[in-house]
Amino acid sequence: MPRFFVDKEYINEEKIIISGSDAHHIARSLRMAEGDAVTVSDGEGAEYECILSRIRDEECECKILEKVQSERESPVFITLFMAYPKGDKLEVVIQKAVELGASRIVPFESSRCIKRPKAEKQDKQLARLQKIAEEAAKQCGRARIPEVAAPLSFDKMLEEMKKSDLPLLCYEDERGTNIKEALRGAEKRGSIAVIVGSEGGFSEAEANAAREAGAVAVSLGKRILRCETAPSFALSAIAYELELS
Prior knowledge:
This protein is of the alpha/beta class. The chain contains seven helices and eleven strands. The protein has helices spanning 20-29, 89-99, 122-140, 154-161, 179-182, 204-212, 230-243, and strands at residues 3-5, 15-19, 37-41, 46-55, 59-69, 77-83, 104-108, 147-148, 166-170, 191-196, 216-218. Strands 8-7-6-10-9-11 form a six-stranded parallel beta sheet, with helices on both faces. A five-stranded mixed beta sheet has the order 1-3-4-5-2. Helix 2 (89-99) packs parallel to helix 3. The radius of gyration is 20 Å and the shape is elongated. The two termini are 28 Å apart. The model has no long low-confidence stretch (mean pLDDT 94).
């Protein structure tokens, strides 16, 4: 069933207004008809099962049949801190992170980043990445659109990381603690941060700085994962631990 996100100001007790590109998509691309069913989310966890009652290119009206609270969100707030990878890998990381339950994605720069954001292109790139997150949220049935934040320096990332109850540094040289062990009791936490490096991972100095700032360094297993694979592995482990018990 098609899914759309609408600001709460366009929702009342009986109907919802869908406008802009989504309305055009309903009318022209999907070629939907009055009476067809759609799901609408307010982006804050509430979902509305509706039928289309009026269709126009610029605005569509939906009649609300039922309002429910979504059960598809993670029980904890998950922030993925992702060091800039090469090429378009960040787009793939964002798409998969949204599907796996991340609440917020924050790119950052580390010493081994090959690609670095250009200030003059930042706004345009951020808008594109946020659109990717929105489309992924629609596809996988999320009730919230995860935020893609503006890029940070490594030091700023560490400051942001401290706001999470359980910050996890995915570090290939960690030998003492694996992610399975670190997630024991995680259901009692309100928020988790997952920190992943770019190609080449983190330098020893960066890993030490993260530990000193409060991060728990964790291994993701016996194999070294690509930088675009590691976030999916870590987020899958969190989902397995917290959502399938």
